[in-house]
Amino acid sequence: MDTPDYLERYRQFSALDQQKNQLIEELLQRVTDLETSFQQEKLDHQRETRFNRDIQLHEMELMQQISQIKNIMDREPFVVVLLDGEGIIFKDEYLQQGEEGGRSAAKALETGMRSYLAKNIPSVTEPRLLTKIFLNVKSFGELCARSGTISEAAAIHDFIRGFNETMSLSEIVDIGSGKNKAYDKIQEMFQVFLYNCHCHQIFLGCPSNSEYGHFLEESLNEGDLTGRISLVEGVPFEKELETVQNSYRIARFPDVFRSAKLVPVWTAPWKSALPSRSLLTPSPSQSFTNPPPLSRTSTNTSFSGVGGPLSTVTSNKGENPDFQPVVRSKLPGSTVAKTVERNKYGQRVDRLDFKSIPRDDLNRLKKLKLCNYYFLLGECPNEENCYHDHDRKLTRQELHILSAIARMTPCRFGLECDDPECIYGHRCPQSEPGKKTCFRGDSCRFEPVAHGIDTNIVKVTKV
């Protein structure tokens, strides 16, 4: 074998050794990398083990805290009953029994509520009952008296006293005569209790009107909470609540609340003591021109409130012709149809345009302290002891202004008054149709419902 052959073989073996060494180095590097990865995984595993142990301990602590909080939440469960007295009215037998009736009504309401809860919401165990009934006591008492439910309006205070004394967490709240006072109070209390964890159910009793309809419709947005709301139906719900009543649980207590509204059946008590009002007939000569006649739907009128035709008699010679006394006719058999004009809502409408009366003349006649009964109805029920003027001679125009002055005093029977001879006001003279207030605000003598009255007459009720 020649030298070049040996050299070639040496080179071949050297290349193999080099490849072997390279393979060994690669294997060693691989082992090193695997050991490093193993150590990292080992560390991660140890870290996760510690973390899982910590999480388990923390979870146990949280579960213990949740259990404690749940026990605290369940300690004092209560149910709220919020009732608007306009739509929720106790039955007559309770109202007529005074204090004893109030006590019986409170007990019957609590019994009915607990029975309803046990049957429909069994998850609420032995809750306290927080009951608040918001009511314009004066107006409600007068309505009860007018409907014949109680003998006099003041008797309603005995019923309320008995109700409030019976249950420590139940009361009837007098809201006064402010506009939407019951709605405002119920809305605020509703929002407070809706998110209270101790409150397990809210019972809402309300009349059918647009305010409550809109409020309940907005409450539907709280989808997770609507199950905590139940509606109490006394007087059947009307169209204002049609769209929302099916979304709530409805509770009825026919043994406690009336299912029909109170309806007035009598008018002012002094009316029965007076003879029928004689007619006021025109004189052959007049110095005051009557305004043009009105259509049934007209809202502009310049004379009303007297109930019969009015005129003047010729003055005696030498007297001022501007002062012509109004006299009553003695014609036998004379009759005048007694009617009450109402709008499309059935509300009484006073056909009198207060803005057409001069302010100076109005103030002047107010200062005269004239007897409204005598000059407008022809008789004074207390003429012997009356401190108002009966002797002054009035022109027809002054009589017209006096009828407007009388209309500035609210009629106690409001828009439901069906006395055709009533001389008092049934709508606020300062309020315009559609506007629910006047410049006097809450100090106005008229009830909020007497504002914004539609004055278009579409119905005449004969009495």
From TrEMBL:
Region described as Disordered: spans on this chain: 281-324
Domain C3H1-type residues, every copy: 365-393, 427-454
Query: Any keyword Acetylation?
Result: no
Alphabetized, the UniProt keywords read: Metal-binding, Zinc, Zinc-finger
Q: Which InterPro entries match?
A: DUF7923, Znf-CCCH_tandem, Znf_CCCH
Lineage: superkingdom: Eukaryota
List where Polar residues composition bias occurs: 295-304
Any one GO molecular function term: zinc ion binding
> Which intervals hold the zinc fingers (C3H1-type)?
365-393, 427-454
The yes or no answer to whether the keyword Zinc-finger is present is: yes
Any single Pfam family the record assigns to this protein: zf-CCCH_tandem
Can you tell me which residues the record assigns to a coiled coil?
none
Can you say what this protein is called? C3H1-type domain-containing protein
Source species of the chain: Penicillium cinerascens
